[in-house]
Automatic annotation (TrEMBL):
The protein's name in its UniProt record: Cysteine desulfurase
Gene3D superfamilies referenced in this protein's UniProt entry, alphabetically: Aspartate Aminotransferase, domain 1, Type I PLP-dependent aspartate aminotransferase-like (Major domain)
Gene Ontology molecular function: cysteine desulfurase activity; pyridoxal phosphate binding
EC number: 2.8.1.7
InterPro entries for the chain: Aminotrans_V_dom (IPR000192), Aminotrans_V_PyrdxlP_BS (IPR020578), Cys_dSase_SufS (IPR010970), Cysteine_dSase (IPR016454), PyrdxlP-dep_Trfase (IPR015424), PyrdxlP-dep_Trfase_major (IPR015421), PyrdxlP-dep_Trfase_small (IPR015422)
Cofactor: pyridoxal 5'-phosphate
Function: Catalyzes the removal of elemental sulfur and selenium atoms from L-cysteine, L-cystine, L-selenocysteine, and L-selenocystine to produce L-alanine.
Keyword annotations of the record: Pyridoxal phosphate, Transferase
GO biological process: cysteine metabolic process
Keyword Transferase appears in the UniProt entry: yes
Pfam families: Aminotran_5
């Protein structure tokens, strides 16, 4: 990946605490390229209007831009039709939509919902709530030492009682990639649906929802170079057709009477209220940007960086790295001795290196790892080997600092 990519991200061109910024927190949110920022600016300077109703020129431009973004996203993840793409605020909202609409209609007492212990809180709590409401039970596919799951364990956990399997394609903490296609086949054999949390996969891998044969797939724009506030739910058309909306109001209606109303067809019946128009425009621009570079090139670049980071970081004594060895995505989670990760991150920040420290919205996984929190470096297309070197140098400084402090 050439260095001109980095130059397309204006925010990266600044000093933090006297050092050029090294941004290693893309798993929390990605930075935005000039192309996306310009698309937002253009939209607000030229096309802004409400969608699906204006007879005037701006109204139709805004509608074209909004629906055009839906088409781009449908192609990007290889959905069969734009009817299968519901715009949401992000992954969290999309997962909640499935849990609160599909959930109560299809899950009852004694049924089972299957998860893993490494799910993000957003792919855990909606199912806890659904289980409480319906009397269903949550079951967890056990984790191996390195955070992977096995298909044998999945076969044992998913049964004829299972109604929903909900799992991340890629873990935001461990960098583990799950075998979604195989899990989908197991779920389907038992008459269950599979809901895929794609917040960490969509930015980094080529995603094909038809090939994965997942029933629902969720994503967040802000983790893939688009603005905050836009994301999507993909669902197989027949499932979405049968589902009830969860938000009611303007935009999603067909005919409204005093006592009864009817809904628009897919996908609009799920998009009550003025939608996230500018966000969708930004998402469309981000998809163009990613596709110009190529998802395979992005993925290869990140795998190389992750391998390089792993190799360099493993040379630091006292550094514990969590997760599998051969990562397919650029997420490396670690702890430095028993120094609190917040302190590590503070020292790194003083060196201009931004990493995340905390539980990463995965408290059950932290318990499984027997730590309260970790530090995490996550890479994206704009990161370089030089960024890894800066991380390593800063960690060595942190180590000296804390050895001195403690000693
Ligand atoms: C970020 C993330 C989410 C939540 O996404 P939001 O954009 O905050 O809704 C869910 N799952 C995973 C794996 C994530 O990384």
């Amino acid at each position: 990946m050439n260095s001109t990519i980095r130059e397309q991200f204006p925010i990266l061109n600044q000093n933090i605490n006297g050092h050029p910024l090294v941004y290693l927190d893309s798993a929390a949110t990605s930075q935005k390229p000039r192309q996306v920022i310009d698309a937002l600016k253009h939209y607000y300077e030229w096309d802004n209007a409400n969608v699906h109703r204006g007879v005037h020129t701006l109204g139709s431009r805004a509608t074209d831009a909004y629906e055009g973004a839906r088409e781009k996203l449908a192609k990007f993840i290889n959905a069969r039709s734009t009817k299968e793409i519901i715009f949401t605020r992000g992954t969290t909202t999309a997962l909640n939509l499935v849990a609160s609409s599909y959930g109560p209609a299809n899950v009852g007492e004694g049924d089972e919902i299957v998860l893993t212990q490494m799910e993000h809180h957003s792919n855990l709590i909606p199912w806890q709530q659904l289980a409480k409401k319906t009397g269903a039970t949550l079951k967890y596919i056990p984790l191996q030492q390195d955070g992977n799951i096995t298909l044998e364990d999945a076969e044992k956990t998913i049964t004829d009682r299972t109604k929903i399997v909900a799992i991340a394609y890629v873990s935001n903490v461990m960098g583990v990639t799950h075998p979604i296609k195989e899990l989908a086949a197991i779920a389907h054999r038992h008459g269950a649906v599979i809901v895929v949390d794609g917040a960490q996969s969509t930015p980094h891998l080529k995603v094909d929802v038809q090939d994965l044969d997942c029933d629902f797939y969720t994503l967040s724009g802000h983790k893939m170079c688009a603005p905050t506030g836009i994301g999507a739910l993909y669902g197989k058309r027949a499932l979405l057709e049968a589902m009830e909306p969860v938000e009611f109001g303007g935009e999603m209606i067909d005919d409204v009477g005093l006592y009864e109303s009817t809904w628009k067809e897919l996908p609009w019946k799920f998009e009550g209220g003025t939608p996230i128009i500018a966000g969708a425009v930004g998402l469309g621009a981000a998809i163009d940007f990613l596709q110009e570079i190529g998802m395979d090139a992005i993925h290869n670049h990140e795998m190389k960086l992750a391998a390089y980071a792993e190799q360099r970081l493993s040379q630091i004594d006292d550094l514990t790295i969590y997760g599998p060895r051969n990562r397919e995505v650029g997420v490396v989670t670690f702890n430095l001795g028993d120094v609190h990760p917040h302190d590590v991150a503070t020292v790194l920040d003083a060196e201009g290196v931004a990493v995340r420290a905390g539980h990463h919205c995965c408290q059950p996984l932290m318990r499984w790892l027997q730590v309260s929190s970790t530090a995490r470096a996550s890479f994206y297309l704009y990161n370089t080997e030089e960024d890894v070197d800066r991380l390593v140098d800063a960690l060595i400084k942190a180590k000296e600092y804390f050895t001195y402090e403690l000693g």
